[in-house]
């Protein structure tokens, strides 16, 4: 018997292709250098797991999903006869300064994240499309709204950049999108909602201890009286997925708790150069990344009180995640814009669901045109990400040092600096150069991601900025490179 042909929606396909085209070139950025602060350690842990044949990461700053992905890709490489050295896969010299001898392995690991990011876009599309179709919105406008909602994630510079790092944020974003898709199936009395929600919540916990992902599921069942008994199924599936992704929960529960506690203390105690005014920082980051989503959140808030039952319940469920998650981030002393990656899919769903039902039919064309223009506004920034992520300034700085500094001379390198041959120079790795103000080096290398944190804001960091001025008074600027983040090379006066 022939199966009925199901045509692929051209809008969904176009969004997937757009997201893939923007992300694929970034897979190769900076290699063989690895400049993300978390990526080298994450890859080292995953490769070690593959080498020792265990699923237990023995480190719990993050839960285990990311490490299992890395270990799985490593095992797959070895299974087909490709050599992966436990040492050469990631050689770490300093914070944000690493080098890999396994470039193809890193690209493959990053590509899994890209697929997760593209799948996140498609889940946003499916969520919006399903809700609007059940609500009775016309086929045409439902497809347009779903495509525009997915586009906001596809062209987001923040989502694009973080999709190519071996870090947990992209997986957390996928898990949230999967959970929200499941909750809308529950609201629409569709099958498999509890299964999807269980996997989504379990993956959210296994990716980044994202407990806020539980809230929209609870609210969805609270708004669906006839299905509340299924909440136990969700809890069971989520717990099983969490244990599978983080087996330390069973093997070393005390160590997992200590890891979670240590990370919580870190976010509350502060992180030099990345702290203060978290609410304003995150709002500003959202506005710079995808401004239409902030406007859409306001429209969705109004729509809660002015729309039909299904849309109202959907918006309430999405807000049940988005508001607590934003408030949680805003209460922390430490703030990084990557923490918004798991929030973006929820805002995109709010935009897609609320927009078509809040405006009269006679205004829909104009609203759609304005929304499309706003949604695609960050496209140019995403298309220009490669030079920034490639950090060519690091390569230039390394070449300058190799040409001008004799062998076996001391070279002091701050965090996020260039990779230098450890067999040629006497390297002095410094988190911040002012940690050792008396350092004597033939070359002193300062970076935007280290020294720049303080020099760009001397009002907030007067002591640190003064310390850098004092340090550089003993040196003279010999070279400055700006193809990416800036890097300055100083030599003694």
UniProtKB/TrEMBL annotation:
Keywords: Cell membrane, Glycosyltransferase, Membrane, Transferase, Transmembrane, Transmembrane helix
Cellular location(s): Cell membrane
InterPro entries assigned: LipidA_mod_glycosyltrf_83 (IPR050297), RgtA/B/C-like (IPR038731)
Transmembrane segments: 105-132, 144-164, 170-187, 199-223, 235-258, 315-334, 340-359
Pfam annotation, one family: PMT_2
Record has Glycoprotein as a keyword: no
Span of domain Glycosyltransferase RgtA/B/C/D-like: 106-241
Coiled-coil regions, chain positions: none
Membrane topology of this protein: Multi-pass membrane protein
Alphabetized PANTHER family for the sequence: MANNOSYLTRANSFERASE YKCB-RELATED (PTHR33908), MEMBRANE PROTEIN (PTHR33908:SF11)
Name this polypeptide is given: Glycosyltransferase RgtA/B/C/D-like domain-containing protein
Annotated organism of origin: Catenulispora subtropica
């Amino acid at each position: 018997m022939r199966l009925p042909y199901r045509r692929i929606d051209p809008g969904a396909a176009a969004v997937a292709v757009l997201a893939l085209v923007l992300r694929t070139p970034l897979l190769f950025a900076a290699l063989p250098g690895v400049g993300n602060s978390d990526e080298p350690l994450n890859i080292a842990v995953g490769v070690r797991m593959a080498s020792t044949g265990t699923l237990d990461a023995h480190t719990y700053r993050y839960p285990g999903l990311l490490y299992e992905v890395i270990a799985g890709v490593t095992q797959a490489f070895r299974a087909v006869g490709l050599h992966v050295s436990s040492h050469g896969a990631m050689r770490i010299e300093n914070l944000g300064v690493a080098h890999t001898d396994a470039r193809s392995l890193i690209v493959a690991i990053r590509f899994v994240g890209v697929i997760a990011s593209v799948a996140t876009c498609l889940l946003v599309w499916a969520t919006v499309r399903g809700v609007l179709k059940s609500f009775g919105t016309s086929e045409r406008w439902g497809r347009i709204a779903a495509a525009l909602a997915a586009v906001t994630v596809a062209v987001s510079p923040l989502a694009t950049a973080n999709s190519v790092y071996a870090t947990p944020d992209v997986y957390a974003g996928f898990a949230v999108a999967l959970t929200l898709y499941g909750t809308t199936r529950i609201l629409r009395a569709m099958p498999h909602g509890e299964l999807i929600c269980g996997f989504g919540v379990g993956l959210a916990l296994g990716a980044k201890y994202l407990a806020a992902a539980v809230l929209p599921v609870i609210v969805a069942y609270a708004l669906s009286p006839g299905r509340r008994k299924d909440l136990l199924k969700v809890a069971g599936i989520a717990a099983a997925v969490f244990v599978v992704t983080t087996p330390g929960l069973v093997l070393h529960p005390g160590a997992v708790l200590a890891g979670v506690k240590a990370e919580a203390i870190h976010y509350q105690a502060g992180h030099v150069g990345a702290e203060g005014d978290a609410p304003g920082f995150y709002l500003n980051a959202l506005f710079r990344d995808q401004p239409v989503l902030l406007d859409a959140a306001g429209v969705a808030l109004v729509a809660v009180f002015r729309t039909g039952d299904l849309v109202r319940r959907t918006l309430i469920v999405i807000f049940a995640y988005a508001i607590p998650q934003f408030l949680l981030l805003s209460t922390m002393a430490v703030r990084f814009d990557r923490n918004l990656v798991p929030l973006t899919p929820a805002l995109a769903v709010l935009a897609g669901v609320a927009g078509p039902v809040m405006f009269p039919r006679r205004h829909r064309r104009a609203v759609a045109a304005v929304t499309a223009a706003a949604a695609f506004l960050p496209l140019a920034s995403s298309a220009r990400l490669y030079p920034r992520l490639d950090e060519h300034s690091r390569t230039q700085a390394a070449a300058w040092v190799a040409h001008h500094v004799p062998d076996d001379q001391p070279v002091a390198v701050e965090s996020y600096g260039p990779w230098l041959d450890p067999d040629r120079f006497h390297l002095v790795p410094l988190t911040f150069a002012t940690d050792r103000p008396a350092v004597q080096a033939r070359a002193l290398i300062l970076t935007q991601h280290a020294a720049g944190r303080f020099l760009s804001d001397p009002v907030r960091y007067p002591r640190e900025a003064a310390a850098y001025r004092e340090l550089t008074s003993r040196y003279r600027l010999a070279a400055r490179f700006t193809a990416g983040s800036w890097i300055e090379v100083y030599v003694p006066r």
